[in-house]
Structures are given as C-alpha cells and as structure tokens.
C-alpha cells in the first residue's frame, strides 16, 4: 500500500493504475501497470524528453544545458525510431508495443508485460542452465532474430540477458493430489523435473529494447535502404555485416547460460576490448568439462571473429545441437 502511494502519476496515463517499478535506466523508467480499459496488466516504459539536472553550479548548469540539448535531440530521434520499428513487428518472440503516446515531458511506450523479468536475473538465480533449458531459451530468441533478419530486415544490435524477458511457467497446485480409485488407469508419466523448468521458471522468452535497432533493408522492395546505385561498398558491406552482430551476441548469451559467466570479461575496459577483438575466450575447466562438444562447436561458430565466417541465423538452425535434440513439449509451458 505504501509503495502504491509513492508511485508517480503521469499526465495522459489516467487509464492505467501504476503498480510498481520493474526497471530503470538513465532516461527511462519501466512500470508494471493495470489497464482499466482492457482489465489486463501491461508494462509502461516512460521516457523523459528532457533530462533534469538538480543541484549544480550556474556554470555547470550552462555547460550541461548545451550537452543536454544535444543529447535530447539524440534521445528523441532514438525513441521515435524505436517506436517506428516496434510498430512493424509481430512475432511470439518479440515483446509487442501495445500503444504509444506522449505528454509535454514524457514519451510512453505501453508494452506487453513480461512478468518474469530479465533472463539475466534467472541466470544469477540458477547459477547456470542445463543444456536443455539453454536450448529452450536460445531457440526462442533465435526464432525472434530469424524473423527480424529474414522477414523484416531489422538488426537489434543490443541482444543481451538484460534485454531478454520471460513469462514464468505457472505453478501447478499439488496440495490435494487426487486419491487413485480402483478403476484408475496408470498415471501419466510427467517426465523428469528439470531445474528452471518448473513453476516460476522460464516459459516463453521474448526480445525487448529496440532502442539501438536499425532497419538494414526496405521491407517493400527487399533492397538495402537508400539509393543502391550510389551506395559506397563499405556501406553495403556494413549492412550485410550488421546482422552478424546479433549472431555474435547470440553466441555470448548461449555461452553465458551454459556456464554462468560471459565469454569475454576483464576489469579493464581496454583489456576487455582487446580480448573481444582477438576473439580470446576459452571453455574454462572445470566449468565446461561436462558440457557437450556439440554446444561448444555451435558457440565457436557464433563467436567467429571474421563476420564472413560467423554462422548466420539459418546456419544456427541447421546445427545438430539445435536440430537433432528434442525441444520441450509446448504443453508443459
Ligand atoms: P533501456 O533502454 O533503458 O535499457 P529497456 O526497454 O531495456 O530500456 O527496459 C529497461 C528494463 O525494464 C528491462 O531490462 C526490464 O528489466 C524492464 N522491462 C522493459 N520492458 C519490459 C516488459 N515489457 N515487461 C517487463 N519488464 C520490462
Ligand atoms: Mg535495455
């Protein structure tokens, strides 16, 4: 009750009851809210149009005002681009934008609510995932990427566990199990319990945050954006390569789920950059000892430094680790 009273009110959002905060960034706050019109819960991403700066000297104020104006221009065009791209998307692995509106000070993105929150927190909670749970997650994310790359000509460019959100598997109440009668058939085999795939675990997973996404080709003509004849080779190349950034990120996410830590890490940003550029990562013992050679092969192909050699989304789906293993039955979700 106390928290509800502390929730801010925003002009233009009277239709919604803001329940609690789900995430916040430099420019945006994301709230869980109740839509009184549809009687459904939603997520609302509130983006400040202008950054407010309190408690600073007059000189600082003048300086930051100039900076802020420049940054606001950037942020504004970004948010409108994010909305423009999200409006074109409709896929079970993509968080959908339900509506967009604005007030003098804010932009509002009303989004499909992902109750489970970030994949990131689920990795922290479970330490690492089984191969089966990792496959369950990565295949759904990859289906979203295939839709973006192959059908929409969109690259996401910010695939990471913080931007992958899930719906939890519902808890099945088992307080009063039915007492078997004399005429009952044998009980249905429910299979083994897989940690992370019981109640509260990851059901559906979807890609969120299109703040850095980009359209690389025209949806109607299926050609690169802009006048092709005058486009410089490095731009054409750039657009071809840009899809491969999502595939690299997909490899990083898969690696992280399987062992619980990212493939590239260093306290120093310079050393980290160096490692990424050289593709310096290892399947560290003992953490990787019992993980399949097939998953390591797939990761190596996603973490190829040369974007020409890196797996495309279709090669991902053709890999035995993805293709030859059974997925979890949809009925369990
Ligand atoms: P930013 O550009 O600030 O990273 P995001 O769109 O990634 O904005 O949202 C920030 C955070 O808010 C996410 O990492 C997630 O924790 C939460 N969030 C965003 N959208 C939703 C949603 N539809 N459902 C649940 N949580 C969400
Ligand atoms: Mg984000």
UniProtKB/TrEMBL annotation:
Protein name, entry field: 8613_t:CDS:1
Enumerate the spans annotated as Protein kinase domain.
16-322
One of the entry's Gene Ontology molecular-function terms is: protein kinase activity
Task: Look up the domain of life of the source.
Answer: Eukaryota
Q: According to the UniProt entry, where is the signal peptide?
A: none
